[in-house]
Each structure stands twice: as C-alpha cells, then as structure tokens.
C-alpha cells in the first residue's frame, strides 16, 4: 500500500472508531444515511432512499433507529443523531441532524482535517509535496 492509500485508510479507520464510540452498532448503511442527512439537511425520506439505493422501508427503519429516544416511531437503539420533521404535507418527512448529530459531524470534521494536515506535513518533510 502506498503512503497516500495508507493515510486515507488511517483517516477512515479513525472516523469509524469515532462513530463507533458515539453510536455503537451503527451500521455502514446507517452511516451513509447519516452523512447524506448532514449534506442535505431537510432531505425527504424518499429522496434519501434514492440516494442510498435502498428500499423505503430499509431507510425508514435505519433513520428511526438514529432518531431521538422517546420520539414517535423511534426504534432501538435510538442513537439520537437524526430528527424527523413533518412538512406542510403531514405525509412527508424531512430529516435533519440533531444537536448530537451535529456534534458528531464536528468531531469527524476536526479529526479528518487534523489527520490530513499531518499527512501533508509528512509529505512536505519528505519533499513529496
């Protein structure tokens, strides 16, 4: 494995470890859903299904497991990362990160930036940049 691939693998591992600390057992599919919700705050459940390439029922279960404990329709383990908002049409549900979800996103962002900066510094010190 070359240095760049090794560093990218290290960054990804660090991200996954941080996610596991915050939401033990969160599946890779749920992480992908969460990342789409961060990117597209207010995304509708049906659009999220299309983005993830999954059936509506699978996405609905995944999102409800990431919702806040005690909210209507929440499934265990209720990670508290996502909230389901009702639109003007009561049937449509929009998704947004909770405060806890945004805190996780901030930690991941800082982690990625920090690791990438270290890699850039190492490249420069070796005369590779």
Automatic annotation (TrEMBL):
<dbReference type="InterPro" id="IPR036390">
    <property type="entry name" value="WH_DNA-bd_sf"/>
</dbReference>
<dbReference type="InterPro" id="IPR036388">
    <property type="entry name" value="WH-like_DNA-bd_sf"/>
</dbReference>
<protein>
    <recommendedName>
        <fullName>MarR family transcriptional regulator</fullName>
    </recommendedName>
</protein>
């Amino acid at each position: 494995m070359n240095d760049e691939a090794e560093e990218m693998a290290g960054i990804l591992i660090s991200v996954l470890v941080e996610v596991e600390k915050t939401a033990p057992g969160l599946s890779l599919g749920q992480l992908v859903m969460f990342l789409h919700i961060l990117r597209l705050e207010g995304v509708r459940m049906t659009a999220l299904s299309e983005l993830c390439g999954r059936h509506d029922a699978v996405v609905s279960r995944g999102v409800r497991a990431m919702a806040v404990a005690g909210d209507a329709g929440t499934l265990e383990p209720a990670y508290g990362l996502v909230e389901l908002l009702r639109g003007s049409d009561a049937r449509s549900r929009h998704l947004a990160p909770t405060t806890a979800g945004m805190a996780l996103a901030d930690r991941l962002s800082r982690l990625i930036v920090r690791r990438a900066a270290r890699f850039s510094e190492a490249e420069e010190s070796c005369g590779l940049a």
